[in-house]
Amino acid sequence: MKRKLHTKARGERSDRPKFHTPERSPAEEESKAPRVTARDVSAPAPVIESHTSSALVYGVAPVLEALRAGSRSVERILIAEGRDEHRVRELLAHARAGGVPVRRASRVELERITTANHQGVVAIVAAARYLDADELLDNLAARIGTDDPPLAVALDGVEDPRNLGAIIRTAECAGAHGIFLPERRAAGLTETVAKTAAGALEYVPVARAGNIVPLLEELKKRNIWTIGTAANAKHQYTDWNFTGACALVFGGEGAGLRRLVAERCDALVSIPLRGRIESLNVSVAAGILLYEVLRQRTEAKRRTYKDVGSEEI
């Protein structure tokens, strides 16, 4: 029996879940695996990228001018422990105003990053510019009601730059309209990310959100459904109707979605597993869901055109 697609107007929200209800044979029910997850828990610890793969600005004056000019996207600033606060007070003020994270680091760590005369201050600069989060949210909302409804990706703490690059590349190929990253405890747009993305950063806007939980609420206000991935989700990802405005939410390596993020999602879905390994890499999970969105939307358009053609005949 064919699945009946959700026919509610694009962007309009209701309390009724947007799940398909396909019939499954007894054989299919028996073969359902007991373990389902979209997290990457196979690795004992995430791979943290070395700062040497990112562009650096070092020294008090150069970093201060980079913040003032705003011509570069500064990922974060490292300040040596024991550094005189008075001498970097203006720098810290500009960093706070620009939402740039600042962290204390040992002299040994800074010297591993660069052997230049850094004066106890090093800025990690992004390989690409971020779009303002509010601007990206508005751009997504403007697509509601069009033939190409918004599709966004929100990442809750993906730390491996290669995973992030792979997700950005797949998102571009699947036609996603934007990606949101948290400011802290997550990979940024470094050179390694850009290289792994294979040019996709030139086409997919990426924005930084201070916190993913408020971001989900902002997406909901704009009538965009938020669908997260979780191991214990009641429904599989193929049960959800992705033909309307939606944002896919993925957790980081190891921990998956944080509890508050999972609770704020409109729905949680899982990816079935049939083997002995307990999880999928997060970039693989993202690829599976992104292409399910593309498959459903392509099928819906094909059905619409077919129906229109039949009426004309």
**CATH domain class name of the largest domain:** Alpha Beta
- Element-level helix/strand string: HEHEHEHEHEHEHEHEEEHEH
Number of E-type strands? 11
Which strands sit side by side, in order, in the main sheet? 7-6-5-10-8-11-9
> What is the first-to-last residue Cα distance?
26 Å
Q: Give the uncertain stretches in residue-range form.
A: 1-11, 22-53
Shape: elongated
What structural class should be given to the helix and strand makeup? alpha/beta
Question: What does the radius of gyration come to?
Answer: 22 Å
CATH architecture classification of the largest domain: 3-Layer(aba) Sandwich
- Strand proportion, as a percent range, falls in 15-25%
Could you characterize the architecture of this molecule?
With 313 residues, this protein is an alpha/beta fold. The chain has 2 domains: 34-42 and 130-312, Alpha/beta knot; 55-125, 2-Layer Sandwich (60s Ribosomal Protein L30, Chain: A). 35% of the residues lie in helices and 17% in strands. The protein contains 10 helices and 11 strands. The chain has helices at residues 26-30, 60-69, 89-98, 107-113, 133-141, 161-173, 191-197, 212-221, 259-264, 282-312, and strands spanning 55-58, 74-80, 102-105, 121-125, 151-156, 178-182, 206-209, 225-229, 235-236, 246-251, 267-270. A 7-stranded parallel β-sheet has the order 7-6-5-10-8-11-9, sandwiched between helices. A 4-stranded mixed β-sheet has the order 1-4-2-3. Helix 3 (89-98) links the parallel strand 2 (74-80) and strand 3 (102-105). Helix 6 (161-173) runs parallel beside helix 7. The protein starts with 25 loop residues before the first helix and ends with a helix.
